[in-house]
């Protein structure tokens, strides 16, 4: 699958994954379309390549008045930046997002400023988000259910990646839409990599979120980046190890260098060995993840 294309999710009826082409990397940005009785789009991408997503939704067979739900997993703009554009195009759709993300989608100014600060030149890959009308959006929280007519999604809070993050579970199909709660599964290297952005990454909570996903016992994990993958105990164990090892690497390097800028330089230099996306994105992503862990360590060390 390439940018702008979609394909069925193997083993799950009526579920499709669309590749947004985010950061000019095939399959990095995954948006899910469930063609249920009350159809839903789960996550939205940055909004930059929204016309291709509109085309996929139409080709799947969902009309402009038929889409019922727009469901970002959290408010980060690589997952929710297109929500306002989707709401405008699909006037019957209601937007639902974890409660702490509602204000960011109604008034995205602060989120845009924070994102620009965090991603630097990578902002070129984003669209300026369109606000979601406040009469079209409500918050969801632990235990809430999204009615798709012939099935439902159960909301589970998963705030380790960000306090406005949730995972969505279809218990009948044994699918969990993990977004960033279990890291990023990268098919090119057959491994899970952590995603630990500033300023609110919480290591212990991330491990709890992975255990939550494990306890749901899914057959399929729908990652927010690089798409779906079958779930097994080895994958869940690998996700836990990836987070533990990454946080410890940053902790040890900080103790060794005693200079956070030097720590950032060290890991950014190491990003040259990452070849599953372009060098610019590899460096930016590594910098983001390193700063997230450093911020977390500052917080816990100060407690």
UniProtKB/TrEMBL annotation:
It holds the Pfam family Lactamase_B. This is MBL fold metallo-hydrolase. Transmembrane segments: none annotated. Residues 28-225 form the Metallo-beta-lactamase domain. Signal peptide: none annotated. InterPro entries: Metallo-B-lactamas, NDM-1-like, RibonucZ/Hydroxyglut_hydro, ST1585_MBL-fold. CDD domains: ST1585-like_MBL-fold.
């Amino acid at each position: 699958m390439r940018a702008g294309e979609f394909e069925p999710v193997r083993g799950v009826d009526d579920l499709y994954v669309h590749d947004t082409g985010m950061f000019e990397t095939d399959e990095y940005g995954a948006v899910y379309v469930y063609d249920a009785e009350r159809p839903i789009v789960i996550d939205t991408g940055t909004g930059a390549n929204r016309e291709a997503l509109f085309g996929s939704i139409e080709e799947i067979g969902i009309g402009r008045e038929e889409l019922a739900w727009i469901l970002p997993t959290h408010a980060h703009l690589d997952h929710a930046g297109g929500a306002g554009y989707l709401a405008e195009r699909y006037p019957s759709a209601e937007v639902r997002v974890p409660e702490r993300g509602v204000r960011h989608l109604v008034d995205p100014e602060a989120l845009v400023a924070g994102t620009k600060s965090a991603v630097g030149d990578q902002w070129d890959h984003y669209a300026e988000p369109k606000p979601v009308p406040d009469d079209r959006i409500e918050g969801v929280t632990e235990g809430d259910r999204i009615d798709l007519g012939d099935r439902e999604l159960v909301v589970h809070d998963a705030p380790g990646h960000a306090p406005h993050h949730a995972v969505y579970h279809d218990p009948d199909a044994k699918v969990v839409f993990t977004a960033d709660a279990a890291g990023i599964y990268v098919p090119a290297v057959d491994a899970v990599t952590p995603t630990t952005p500033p300023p609110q990454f919480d290591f212990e909570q991330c491990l709890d979120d992975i255990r939550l996903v494990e306890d749901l016992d899914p057959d399929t994990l729908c990652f927010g980046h690089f798409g779906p993958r079958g779930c097994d105990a080895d994958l869940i164990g690998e996700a836990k190890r990836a987070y533990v090892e990454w946080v410890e690497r940053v902790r040890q390097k900080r103790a060794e260098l005693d200079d956070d800028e030097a720590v950032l330089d060290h890991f950014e230099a190491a990003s040259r060995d990452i070849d599953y996306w372009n060098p610019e994105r590899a460096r930016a992503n590594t910098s983001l993840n390193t700063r997230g862990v450093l911020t977390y360590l500052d917080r816990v060390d100060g407690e």
